[in-house]
Amino acid sequence: MPASYAYLGPEGTFTEVALRTLPEAATRELIPYVSVQSALDAVRVGEAEAAFVPIENSVEGGITTTLDELVAGAPLMIYREVLLSITFALLVRPGTGLSDIKTVSAHPAAQPQVRNWLKNNLPDAHWESAASNADAARLVQEGQYDAAFAGEFAAARYGLVPLETGIHDAENAQTRFVLVGRPARPAAPTGADKTSVVLWQRDDHPGGLRDLLGEFATRGINLMLLQSRPTGAGIGNYCFCIDAEGHISDRRVAEALMGLKRICLQVRFLGSYPRADLRPSDVEPPRLGTSDDEFVAAADWVARCQDGRF
Fold first, then answer.
1. Based on the number of CB atoms within 10 Å of its own CB, is 83 exposed (0-12), middle (13-18) or buried (19 or more)?
2. Are residues 207 and 271 in contact, defined by beta-carbon separation less than 8 angstroms?
3. Per-residue model confidence as pLDDT tens digits over 92-128
4. Which three-class secondary structure string do you get for 198-239?
5. Closest-CA residue to 44 (of 182, 238, 185, 202)
6. What is the DSSP string of 254-276?
7. Do 195 and 244 form a contact (C-beta atoms < 8 A)?
8. CB-based contacts of 135: which residues, under 8 Å, 6+ apart?
9. Cis peptide leading into 10, omega within 30 of 0?
10. Positive or negative, the Cα torsion across 261, 264, 268, 269?
């Protein structure tokens, strides 16, 4: 396997900045790809050891391109996550003023984060989506658009100047990025972990989602993300992407996954990995009967009953 990481490029994306915060990135060749799909496919076909892509934004929610690739493509697994605070700069060619801007471009996930700023400052500008914010900057450099929303750090890379900086509609906006590789044994638990899965129901029935969520709730497992995605099998057919606190080696998480495997048409395990915020899974004392020790004791009691040792 080549010692390289693929990432959503080109150079100068927020993805690249977040990737470079990983210590191991210093020992890998970092290769930009034109899309999330192509970066993940590079891992699937063995061109890269892992791919680093955005998966969730605190303003807009899940990055659907990434979620859909993890749902529908050949299986991959999440190994790490990074949180990056996001603010935008309006990048233009030298000599461009606000009154000159008729077209603006950025990644689609950027639009909800600057919508109000656009309405107040460039109400007549036409929005054009780009494969990434850095790609939008490149297109501005080439003269296809007048301005791009991107990181201020991308200006020098593309010969642009920041006309406005610190642009954001929501304070403390963050994007979550994940390092994705081919399936293997998850890293050992840290005590501050999350587990990601995709669930498909056997059929559509009243209380179906409640049944899925009940497998987590009865074991005292907190959910951090719940997003439905269409399966492509017709209107009303959805699967569910879920992030849950804890690690697959935790007894309560493992039992929840076993329960889901029994009742779901399909369960795709996307990995157990350290939380970027390092916050322990049990931020409060666990609910009665949901600690690992209690799960172990209950399993031991059943075994003794089966052996006639109760």
1. middle
2. no
3. 999 999 999 999 999 998 999 999 999 999 999 999 9
4. EEEECCCCCCHHHHHHHHHHCCCCCEEEEEEEECCCCCCCEE
5. 182
6. HHHHHHHHHHEEEEEEEEEEE-T
7. yes
8. 9, 10, 13, 34, 107
9. yes
10. negative
| Encoded tokens for 237 | 């057919």
Is 0.85 topped by the overall pTM? yes
Q: Rounded CA gap, 102 and 20, in Å?
A: 34
Q: Which residue type is seen at 128? A: E
Query: Is the pLDDT higher at 172 or at 49?
Result: 49
Q: How confident is the model at residue 296 (pLDDT cuts 50, 70, 90)?
A: confident
- The angle at the Cα of 279, spanning 274 to 285, to the nearest 5 degrees, equals 120
| Residue 238, both tokens | 């959805």
Q: Are 13 and 138 in contact (CB under 8 A)?
A: no
- Amino acid identity of residue 191, one-letter, is G
Measured distance CA(84)–CA(151) in Å, rounded: 12
Strand partners, 244: 195, 223
pLDDT in tens, 75-99: 999 999 999 999 999 999 999 999 9
Task: Select from 255, 285, 269 the least CA-distant residue to 197.
Answer: 269
